[in-house]
Amino acid sequence: MIVETGHYALVLALVMALAQSIIPFLAANRQDQALLRIAPRTAIATFILVAVSFVALTWAYVTSDFSVLNVLQNSHTSKPLIYKITGVWANHEGSMLLWILILALFGASVSAFGGNLPPTLLARVVGVMGLIAFGFLLFILLTSNPFERVFNPPLDGQGMNPLLQDPGIAIHPPFLYLGYVGFSVAFSFAIAALIEGRVDPAWARWVRPWTLAAWVFLTAGIGLGSWWAYYELGWGGWWFWDPVENASFMPWLAGTALLHSAIVVEKRDALKSWSIFLAIIAFSFSLLGTFLVRSGALTSVHAFATDPTRGVFILILLCLTVGGSFALYAWRAPTLKGGGLFQPISREGALVFNNILLSIAAAMVLLGTLYPLLLETVTGEKISVGEPFFNMTFVPIMTPVIIAMAIGPLLPWKRADLFAAIGKLKIAIASVVVVVLVTFWLSGGPAFALFGMGLAIWLFVGSMIEWANRIKLFREPLGTSLRRMRNLPRAAHGTMLAHVGVAIVVAGITGSQAWTTESVQSLAVGESTEIAGYTFELSALREYQGPNFAAREGTVTVSRPGEAPVLLYPEKRVYTVEAMPTTEAGIRSSFTGDIYAVLGDQDSSGKWVTRFYVKPMIPWMWAGGLVMVLGGLMSLSDRRYRVGAPTRSHKTSPAAKSALPAE
To answer: Alpha-carbon torsion 85, 86, 89, 91, what sign?
Structure first.
């Protein structure tokens, strides 16, 4: 009965999403006050119905109801409860339901917290989100019904991909979807603004917190996915430029550009058309990622579906959404006149420079991702575009972005003196020289390591200098600086943290890529090998039975003169139901880096294949990502983001209220 309730709720959600697609636009066009009050409630009703459906599917997984095909194909009674729950979205149908749930949640949130928006703008935003929800609800009901029944079901299920039975991958998809779908809000604001023909600083203040929230979630999702690949797959890497990894990275780049361009709209009433374009692009990239994962175009651990019917349906949705939005943009964008004028050397100019390079970087990632697929479709020829291409194109594009990140915040609006701003960065320049020399003295290179460490310290110190200038540190008494720090908007602290996080990530990438040492060998129990000054000894082996797997665990003792020994416990697991092996790396993390051990199979001589790594500075990458997320959360807590534009005056007539934006 609960499963049927979930199915019926999903059908009702489709009907309600249709109402959400129609009523708000009618209300806005007719200036009907009664309908304008009703319009936001349709989004809340859609969310409630989708939530009921999602809870029903979760219940089917928790109770192992194998009469539901989706549960039969992706669960088993022996699975731990946590993986029964996360198994809901570890498959195509369930993950699409989660996607729609998050979309409905954002629509309901805009409705609940949009009381300070002009009623017509709010109605149109809700209507656009309703159209998106209707399209995906139609898709899931016609091609991917998660509640499809099985007659005469077996007593047990077929299990779930063991690679997905991990805490990291369990929480990675929800964060990733919160980022993907979060950009639908910025997209909806952009379409609503195009329909109304008006983009102003108030619009930018409304759209920025939603964009920032999506950016924070997507940053966390990408970081979690990278961390999972590093410790779970056993290959010692953290990023492979996989097409599906790229599919999450492209909206992140576009969203980062949108965050910065919206600042210019808010502060200087400029870059209006460009900001609308970026909002469309960011969500379009999110939809492209959904298509790549679910179309069968890719073979990847990330890919869910290979059914061409589903791929064609999503492709149609993608074309309608992207094509329709760009057609509207081409028609209405010329009416969006820019306001404030500025010189190239100014804070606005720095943000434009940032936007141009971020957009070029996203375009290069798009080219490298889609070109092999297009070539294979047209000619049947298969080629691989991998790490060398992306490193050779992406790194040179992002280098000037990072350099500008330290200079731009020091420039005033409208017009600036570039040399005066650089003059404030004398300590940063000196720090670069010192760090490069020390790095060369300690390691001797390579050249890209010297460059990367210099770039990281440049951004780190430059960001701290800009923050110190804001509170007049060392220029006024300490008590005054502390008071200014407390009174500084939280968004300023958040910006500093986000930029510092990028610097830490750059340092982590540089160190791990430049100085990682790897050794592959076969060892008997009691034998050892030397790597990067460490002695790795395979001390013991044991076998044990997990809840739904059989495991062989090695004990690796890692020692170095003058330091206490470290014990690592790499495992090789075979999941009983799926008969699929997985690798569990043994990792010891510290401030300076990771020691990493992988246990393989037994070779023909009876010894065990082992792989050991010493990976300097690699934890800095995830620490930097965490700092970036904290910076975003700090900015979101800023009162200006929570309040947004002031509410409309209640002295205005109802008709005037609906026609005037908040100031």
So the answer is: negative
